[in-house]
């Protein structure tokens, strides 16, 4: 069966500034790489230089939207000091996208912070929220006439868990108490930011849609020993990681749409109620380059579950990194089937973005995993469209998915 999407459906892709631009040495992430002696992001995909070319390739792929992020540390290199050069660059990026008929979705915080902000205690202190809001107001005022969709924060729970609980990302803390404070501060920054953006648009007689990107993971109890206990841990993880924040923010009416980032499934075994990841060799799903279990049906399940929010849904990230090139198309088509099936059953899905437009820096995992529709040769920064991207380009053009 063919599922036809409406002409205004936004087929797209996503990138983030730090992972692609290069030269973002003024961030806590760059400092962390140097201190921990892990792979340096350095020039990344050199997108800051090649952005025009990358946007043209996005057009060649028939994309109708591109999710980008702004690098706070570039725009505010020092406390209270903004860079006109950086604002000019992002303005040009947004103007080019619009002129190509590609709708920009703009993320304000995608995991990285300016070093000066971290030195002041970063997200652990509520008084620092104002610095983020100063940046937010500046860029929203600058770009309001050219941007309709804002994502204030990318994946707060992933940021929180990696930075403050497991400590594998900067600032490398391992404290549930601090993590709780950070969650409060991120949530408050989000709610205040939401109001600020809405006011700025209202005063200018403009309209916009604001949300945050929610990472969703299917948590399944390990079916081996102690299934009952594993089930409790999997359900607990689902609640605190996937659902609570969405419930809270939708209850406060500060979400205009649900932004879903979905990749995979995680098996959980009981290890205290929070449980831990179970990588037992008997789990049957395919594991990608990063050892993530690929599970397209979970995508469908979440899209159906999110109907309860009665808000439009945009898929703001979905993708994989594989060792075998032929598996990208398989991932793409199986996940699009889930989207199309949910859509055909009446779920209000307005757009889908593949992560990522170009290969890029995968945080603590470096440059090994390749998520791009477009391959980057890290030696000379040449770009090359990958075979599966042609399949995606056809879907974007024809607005149709076979299920
Ligand atoms: C993040 C990206 C990341 C991708 C693949 C998402 O959770 O937003 O920054 O590269 O997943 O791991």
Helices and strands, with pairings:
Blueprint lengths: L1 E3 L5 E5 L2 H4 L7 H9 L10 H14 L4 E5 L2 H4 L8 H16 L3 E7 L5 H5 L9 H15 L5 E6 L1 H10 L10 H28 L5 E13 L5 H25 L6 E12 L6 E2 L18 H10 L7 E6 L7 H19 L4 E7 L18 E3 L6 E3 L1 H12 L1 E3 L1
Parallel strand pairs: 2-3, 2-10, 3-4, 4-5, 5-6, 6-7, 7-9, 9-10
Antiparallel strand pairs: 1-13, 7-8, 11-12
Helix pairs in contact: 7-9, 8-9, 11-12, 12-13
The structure holds beta-D-glucopyranose.
Question: Care to give the gist of this entry?
Answer:
This protein is of the alpha/beta class and 403 residues long. It is built from 13 helices and 13 strands. The protein has one domain: Alpha-Beta Barrel (TIM Barrel), CATH 3.20.20.
Could you characterize the architecture of this molecule?
This protein is of the alpha/beta class and 403 residues long. Helix content is 42%, strand content 19%. The chain has 13 helices and 13 strands. Strand 6 (209-221), helix 10 and strand 7 (258-269) form a beta-alpha-beta unit. The chain is globular. The N and C termini lie close together (5 Å). The structure holds beta-D-glucopyranose. Beta-D-glucopyranose binds next to loops.
Structural class: alpha/beta
Please mark out the parts with pLDDT under 50 across 5 or more consecutive residues, or reply none.
none
N-to-C SSE string, H for helix and E for strand: EEHHHEHHEHHEHHEHEEHEHEEEHE
Distance between the termini: 5 Å
**CATH architecture label name:** Alpha-Beta Barrel
The domain tally reads 1
């Amino acid at each position: 069966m063919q599922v036809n999407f409406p002409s205004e459906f936004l087929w797209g892709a996503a990138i983030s500034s730090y992972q692609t631009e290069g030269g973002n040495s003024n961030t806590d992430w760059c400092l962390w790489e140097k201190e921990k002696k892990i792979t340096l992001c350095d020039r990344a995909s050199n997108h800051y230089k090649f952005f025009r070319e990358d946007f043209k390739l996005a057009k060649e792929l028939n994309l109708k939207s591109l999710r980008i992020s702004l690098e706070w540390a570039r725009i505010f290199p020092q406390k209270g000091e903004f860079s006109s050069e950086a604002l000019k660059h992002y303005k040009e990026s947004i103007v080019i996208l619009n002129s190509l008929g590609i709708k920009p979705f703009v993320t304000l915080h995608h995991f990285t912070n300016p070093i000066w902000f971290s030195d002041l205690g970063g997200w652990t202190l509520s008084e620092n929220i104002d610095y983020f809001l100063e940046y937010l107001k500046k860029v929203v005022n600058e770009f309001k006439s050219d941007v309709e969709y804002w994502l204030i924060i990318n994946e707060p729970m992933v940021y929180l868990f990696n930075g403050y609980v497991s400590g594998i990302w900067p600032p490398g803390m391992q404290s549930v108490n601090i993590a709780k404070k950070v969650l409060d501060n991120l949530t408050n920054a989000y709610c205040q930011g939401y109001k600020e953006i809405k006011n700025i648009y209202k005063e200018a007689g403009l309209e916009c849609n604001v949300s945050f990107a929610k990472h969703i993971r299917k948590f399944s109890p390990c079916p081996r020993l102690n299934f009952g206990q594993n089930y409790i841990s999997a359900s607990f993880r689902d609640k605190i990681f996937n659902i609570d924040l969405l419930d809270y923010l939708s209850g406060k009416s500060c979400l205009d749409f649900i932004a879903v980032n979905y990749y995979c499934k995680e098996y959980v075994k009981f290890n205290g109620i929070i449980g831990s990841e179970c990588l037992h060799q008997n789990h049957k799903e395919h594991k990608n380059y990063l050892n993530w279990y690929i599970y397209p049906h979970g995508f469908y399940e979440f899209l159906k579950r999110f109907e309860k929010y009665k808000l439009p849904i945009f898929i703001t990230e979905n993708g994989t990194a594989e060792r075998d090139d032929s598996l990208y198309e398989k991932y793409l088509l199986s996940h699009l089937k889930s989207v199309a099936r949910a859509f055909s059953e009446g779920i209000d899905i307005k757009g889908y973005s593949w992560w990522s437009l170009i290969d890029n820096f995968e945080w603590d995992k470096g440059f090994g995993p390749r998520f791009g529709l477009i391959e980057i040769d890290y030696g000379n920064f040449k770009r090359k469209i990958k075979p599966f991207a042609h399949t995606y380009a056809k879907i974007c053009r024809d607005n149709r998915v076979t299920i």
